[in-house]
Amino acid sequence: MRRFARKVNRMKKQNDFMKKLLTLALPIAFQQFMLAVVSASDALMLGRLSQDAL
């Protein structure tokens, strides 16, 4: 019975850790994704211009 209680307690701690990790990681991943989108759109817009226009 104690083994089961320890296992449940360990799973709860891991679950709490994963929630905290995702709370931190998701905004960072979203920010990196948005930076990539902005960079790609910038490259597409500037790709239409000639060297003289730059």
Folded structure, characterized:
There is one protein chain. The protein has one domain (1-44). It starts with a helix and ends in a 7-residue tail after the last helix. It is built from one helix and no strands. It has one helix at 2-47. The mean pLDDT is 90. The chain has 54 residues and is mainly α.
Shape: rod-shaped
How would you name the oligomeric state of the polypeptide chains in this document?
single chain
> Span from first to last CA?
73 Å
Helix content: over 70%
Radius of gyration: 23 Å
Helix-strand sequence:
H
Proportion in β-strands: under 5%
**Counting H and I runs of at least 4 residues, what is the number of helices?**
1
Please outline the major beta sheet. Answer: none
Alpha-beta content class: mainly alpha
Give me the count of strands.
0
